[in-house]
Design brief:
By secondary structure, this protein is of the alpha+beta class. The chain contains four helices and six strands, in the order H-H-E-E-E-H-E-E-E-H. It has a six-stranded antiparallel beta sheet, sandwiched between helices.
Length: 160
């Protein structure tokens, strides 16, 4: 297990992700506990990418329930198909929202959130959790984030 992240000082997010992904692999290697791994993944993402809010929601009893996160307090439960997270779960796909105020049914856990990306992770072809990342800036997420955060989700899927 890595105990310290080596963080690129680059302002280029592509380079920061490329430095981070192998470290996340090492961080979770050999640790069987999902919550421990999700906690470290969230901390690594927050520390390296300086996201406003980053966390996981786990599917439990047909709701998304707040899991490990970093940032301001968050909504505890999200219903299927509601908000960006619930929609990602329902549609089984990544959703990038450049302006959360323009997303129909957006759940404003924090009024400071301006843009968002949500990615699902699958077990037996069903979503079992989503990664939710919020920015306090408009238009902050793009295909670079989607590509690299999808790699993080693949790491998580291999853990289960």
């Amino acid at each position: 297990m890595a105990e310290e992240l080596i963080i690129s000082n680059s302002t280029d997010k592509q380079q920061r992700y490329e430095t981070l992904i192998p470290q996340i692999e090492a961080l979770v290697s050999g640790e069987p506990d999902l919550i421990a791994n999700l906690s470290n993944i969230v901390a690594a993402l927050k520390q390296t990418m300086n996201f406003f809010w980053v966390g996981f929601y786990l599917v439990k009893d047909n709701q998304l329930v707040l899991g490990p996160f970093q940032g301001p307090i968050a909504c505890t439960r999200i219903n299927f198909g509601k908000g960006v997270c619930g929609t990602s779960w329902k549609e089984k796909k990544t959703i990038i929202v450049q302006d959360v105020d323009a997303f129909p049914g957006h759940i404003a856990c924090s009024s400071a959130s301006k843009s968002e990306i949500v990615l699902p992770a699958f077990k037996n072809e069903e979503v079992f959790l989503v990664l939710d990342v919020d920015s306090d800036k408009l238009n902050d997420f793009d295909e670079t984030d989607e590509r690299h955060l999808s790699q993080v989700m693949q790491i998580i899927e291999r853990l289960t």
